[in-house]
User: Fold this.
Amino acid sequence: MAVFARPRQALAIAGVLGLTLGVTACGTGSSDNSGGNNNADSAECAPYEKYQGHSGKKVNIYSSIRDIEADRLDQSWKEFEDCTGIDISHEGSGDFEAQLPVRADGGNAPDIAFIPQPGLIQRFAERGQIKAASADTKAMAEQNYPADWLKYSTVGGTFYGAPLGSNVKSFVWYSPKMFQEKGWTVPTTWEEMIKLSDTIADSGMKPWCAGIESGDATGWPATDWIEDVMLRTQTPEVYDQWTTHEIPFNDPRVVEAVDRAGSILKNEKYVNGGFGGVRSIATTAFQEGGIPITAGKCALHRQASFYANQWPENTKVAEDGDVFAFYFPAIDPSRGKPVLGGGEFVVAFADRPEVQAVQTYLASGEHANSRAKIGDWVSANNKLDLANVSNPIDKLSVEILQDDSSVFRFDGSDLMPAAVGAGTFWKGMVDWINGKDTASVLQGIESSWK
Assistant:
């Protein structure tokens, strides 16, 4: 499941000052009548020269991004607006996924939407409701993003838009202080991680804690486990075949991955630290799943980068802090560094020149770095300067995404039909945690896929 919760922190002073300086330099003067901006030839506006000619035009964007994150988005493209004269209006909604199809079907689609589900992009493409990305946007995307990312917004050979923000799910959270006190070493291989788990269990502590309760979406954290392990037991190609149903959901290779995940999640010796036995995982809110680490009641919690937002107030997230995360180790390092994650894609429902200009700009290194400087943001854009990423877990995420050995794959349940990925797969994982056997669970999911 694509979830985009971020730490709700105040803006860094440096980010605010940098933004203020940028806005002042470009100015907010009125546009001339030639279709340009009267500050467009300033040095600060030089990066936006190729987007000129649309002064006075408006572009509206719709997404699920709200509150402080929406404010940060507005700030991230302010210099672009001042230098080009294009007015970007963004609307964030908690009902985005449900309302976007309604708006598109009703002829009231936004100019641009930030869509986190590749399956939803495919839906709009098949109905002819979204526009192919311009040649400039496609060239910018190919220059700045790995091919693994671009295929998720490509339908029937047509490319519809570049990624924007990203998150990395292949993390295990831990307490650096606890590890130092106990003399434990961060594992770099799956074998080392299991040995560490046994060592911790033998000391009397349940090594792992987890929670998969999430209201109507209960079960999704367990699907992330299966997807991450699937990427580690099989090739990326087999993972792709699984998410597109080219192999059945109960294929022996899927069974192997589920059982491998179960060697941790369904192991009474390993879980559920701070909460109870294995079945307590199903009733523990995902937001609370890792909290026992801060109380010394468990040592390991597999969850995405966005979990940085869930720790108690004043918890220091850093390599020398109260909590941090390490890469969920590969089982066979010779296959590269499998990375599970998610993100949103900038897709256009209109192809006016100013809309294409905004879509291209959002795929650029200029925007990636502008947004990163404001704080708490991750992108797979290879033009993103790591020096502009201040949050330590975000920095680690960007390092992983930019690592040439990384093999990225999108959240599998978001790639599957909603009735499966957000339906029987989620529910099946709850049944599995509650004691149902792997074969029966996978057969039920397979039977639901039509």
